[in-house]
Design brief:
The structure holds 2 protein chains of 2 kinds. By secondary structure, chain A is mostly helical. Chain A has 11 helices and no strands. In chain A, helix 3 crosses helix 6. Chain A starts with 17 loop residues before the first helix and ends with a helix. Chain B has a single domain (about 1-240), classed as P-loop containing nucleotide triphosphate hydrolases (Rossmann fold, 3-Layer(aba) Sandwich), CATH 3.40.50.300. The chains are: A mainly alpha, B alpha/beta.
């Protein structure tokens, strides 16, 4: 077929097929429509919200630039404690989650208690609100009269987070383990590999990789839930914001804290989505 | 000498009886081909031979020792009987050479360095020397299947089972895999194949067994079974596939 056979606009750029020209046109049109409608919505918000009767008051107590500038550095510093709690609980959560997932996979009758433990564990810790676990463990265990530093709510609050999140991670890992096709286990068995070697070298490496995106989502949720520890004492960012709020009689520090959380969670969420899309494409 | 002998092997999946009392003798160094329509029980019979499927009834004698006894540890038996699957079943997260080395390392407690010369020799022998560090998804179907064969051979099995290993391959890749079997045959390996490659079975098999509805309906040397089948069903099957 020669170029002159092409139908459509005469100004077909050379080197493009009819389909490419058509798709480029549709793409440009979609982008124009999306930009226009987004602009219209934003404009409406900027015009309508300030018309509300309480806007002046809200602006002063939530979006006070002066307060923001004074409290932001302090909030950032308090956020380091959140980061620290996250950093040492995340690996523990993964290890405990893996252990529980393996318990639930135990086959031999002698290990049935482990299996039962795995089931009870995931049922209980997924069934209780995180904040309740934090209260019970964070106040209950130091209440036993342990010596310093073992009575710190910082430690026991983190333990509560680890226990709860490990239950979710265990379920995610177990779904990964179950998603590995039976033929992989058959191949390993046919080579004479033991059950535990099959799990360790064949099933787990594939399963863990497959559930990375799902686990990423859990760890993003964990980043936020670290703030729940503020209820039992540690002065992390949420509590620090509360202190500033009382001191300055202004809610702006909460907005600052929210921005700091978003600065971490949004990139992490985008990354998890990217991984998940990549995996979905690889499988299709 | 009889290497493997099946006596009345029976296998059920629920109500469905897949093997109905199969008797079969395989001599050392022999190549036996199982032919028959899909669902006739060929694959299941192979999987029973290396205990991937527990046998419901009957006896399987390996060098005169019953390996089908319930409660017997299947692992040592599986180390002596290798199997290659239709769908390759390579471990996708490992390179070809890691796939091959995993079982000897874990089961025979050998080191990578110790294994490398003989594994390299195996890869070279089957034309895969430049593919050792490739991942399965970087290999063609024929190459993957040859790696799967090398993986089974690295355990130095006494018997090799092949479960329709060319059925998932593009026609132009079948030849390279059949060549591998030809070489194993020359090297004197005891082999059992479930296959649809009638030409290959006719050329190389010592014995061909026609399976139908879970029984061996007819067996004999290929020359006899292919040109002068006694059973009506065998005739009908051969007429369809030849």
């Amino acid at each position: 077929m020669t170029q002159t056979d092409l139908e459509g606009p005469a100004a077909t750029p050379p080197g493009l097929t009819r389909r490419q020209v058509y798709e480029a046109r549709i793409r440009r049109r979609s982008m124009r429509v999306a930009a226009t409608s987004t602009g219209a919505v934003l404009l409406a918000l900027f015009i309508l919200i300030p018309l509300a009767p309480g806007w002046e008051g809200v602006k002063k107590s939530f979006f006070n630039a002066d307060v923001f500038a004074r409290t932001f550095p302090g909030l950032l510093e308090a956020f380091l404690l959140d980061v620290a709690i996250f950093a040492w609980s995340a690996p523990l959560i993964f290890l405990l989650g893996l252990l529980i997932a393996l318990c639930r996979d135990a086959q031999s009758p002698a290990l049935y208690p482990l299996r039962l433990f795995g089931i009870l564990y995931t049922d209980i810790f997924r069934g209780v609100p995180v904040i309740l676990v934090i209260y019970l463990i964070g106040f209950g265990i130091p209440g036993l009269g342990l010596p310093r530093p073992w009575n710190s709510p910082y430690i026991w609050g983190t333990v509560a987070l680890v226990l709860t999140y490990a239950a979710y991670v265990a379920e995610v890992l177990r779904s990964g383990i179950e998603s590995i096709h039976q033929s992989q286990r058959a191949a390993a068995a046919s080579l004479g590999l033991s059950h535990s070697d099959t799990m360790r070298f064949v099933v787990l490496p594939q399963a863990i990789r497959r559930v990375v995106p799902a686990n990423m989502n859990l760890f993003i949720a964990l980043q936020k839930d670290v703030a729940l520890l503020s209820f039992i004492g540690p002065v992390e960012i949420f509590r620090q914001a509360g202190v500033y709020k009382s001191l300055l009689a202004n809610f702006t520090p909460y907005v600052g804290a929210a921005l700091i959380f978003l600065a971490v969670t949004i990139p992490a969420t985008r990354y998890a989505d990217y991984l998940m899309n990549k995996q979905a494409r690889a499988r299709s | 000498m009889t290497k493997l002998e099946l006596q009345g092997v029976t296998k059920r999946f629920g109500e469905n009886v897949v093997c109905r009392g199969i008797d079969l003798k395989i001599n050392e160094g022999e190549m036996v081909c199982l032919i028959g329509a899909s669902g006739s029980g060929k694959s299941t019979l192979l999987r029973c031979m290396n205990l991937l499927e527990p046998v419901d009834d009957g006896v399987i004698l390996l060098d005169g020792v019953d390996i089908a006894e319930p409660g017997l540890d299947p692992q040592p038996v599986r180390q002596r009987i290798g199997i290659v699957f239709q769908s390759f079943n390579l471990f996708p997260h490992m390179t070809a050479v890691e796939n091959v080395m995993l079982a000897p390392r874990r089961v025979h407690n050998r080191t990578r360095d110790d294994l490398l010369p003989e594994v390299t020799e195996l890869f070279t022998r089957f034309g895969l020397a430049d593919r050792m560090d490739h991942y399965p998804d970087q290999l063609s179907g024929g190459q993957q299947q040859r790696v799967a064969i090398v993986r089974a051979l690295a355990m130095k099995p006494e018997i090799m089972l092949f479960d329709e290993i060319t059925s998932a391959l593009d026609p132009e890749l079948v030849g390279e895999v059949l060549d591998v079997l030809r070489r194993l045959r020359e090297a004197g390996m005891t082999m059992v194949l479930a296959t649809h490659e009638m030409g290959f079975a006719r050329e190389l098999a010592d014995k061909v067994c026609f399976l139908d509805k879970g029984v061996i309906l007819e067996e004999g040397p290929p020359a006899q079974l292919f040109s002068d089948p006694k059973q009506e069903r065998t005739c009908a099957f051969l007429a369809r596939v030849l």
